[in-house]
Design a protein that fits this description.
The structure is a single chain. Strand 3 and strand 4 form a beta hairpin. The protein has seven helices and eleven strands. Strands 1, 2, 3, 4, 5 and 11 form a six-stranded mixed sheet that branches. A five-stranded mixed sheet has the order 8-7-9-6-10. By secondary structure, the protein is α/β, with parallel strands linked by helices. The chain folds into two domains: about 90 residues, Periplasmic binding protein-like II (D-Maltodextrin-Binding Protein, domain 2), CATH 3.40.190.10; about 70 residues, Periplasmic binding protein-like II (D-Maltodextrin-Binding Protein, domain 2), CATH 3.40.190.10.
Length: about 180
């Protein structure tokens, strides 16, 4: 079976696929809406979406996506989320002028980011930010798996403000379309 998720290998949604449905083949897609569309159109048997983080709150728009006619939520799972500051191997923290990540990741690390005093910017996904990292003056917030997949160095571990940081994911499939 296949399971659609938003992002690329190393994304927390990818980690959720591997942890909670290891017998499914993950398919990374550009957006949360693309994940739902893939399931509705039969391009993936199942999908997984993050719906809420214990620190940053609901993932905007995903509740509405899952409430669409034709979607059946079949399980929810909580994934421990450890956010790390990643950079190219030659980078040093004192040279970083911008930290980029998904807005939910930035929110999960807001207090620790303030103490660094470095500007932040949004990305569509933590792993995609890691994949696209190309300069020594940039860093990203992402998983240890993203560091490994994209050959990055961890400048600072555990940047999340809450040591018990968790994200709830919904596993879903195509359901009845009648009312």
């Amino acid at each position: 079976m296949t399971i659609a998720y938003q992002g690329a290998p190393g994304a927390f949604s990818h980690e959720a696929c591997l942890a909670f449905v290891p017998d499914h083949r993950p398919i990374g897609l550009p957006s949360f809406a693309d994940v739902v569309a893939a399931v509705l159109h039969g391009e993936a048997e199942r999908g997984i979406l993050p719906i809420e983080n214990s620190r940053a709150g609901p993932v905007r728009g995903n509740g509405e996506l899952l409430a669409q006619q034709g979607i059946a939520v079949i399980a929810t799972y909580d994934l421990a989320v450890r956010m790390h500051l990643l950079a190219l191997p030659a980078a040093r923290l004192e040279d970083v002028t911008m930290i980029v990540s998904h807005p939910m990741a930035l929110a999960q690390c807001a207090s620790k980011l303030r103490t660094l005093g470095i500007a932040t910017g949004p990305a569509t996904n933590t792993a995609l930010a890691a994949q696209g990292l190309a300069t020594l003056d940039r860093a990203v917030l992402a998983s240890e798996a993203a560091a490994s997949v994209y050959g990055l160095t961890i400048l600072r571990r555990d940047m999340h403000d809450d040591p018990d940081n968790m994200t709830r994911f919904c596993l879903f499939e195509r359901g009845a379309t009648g009312s």
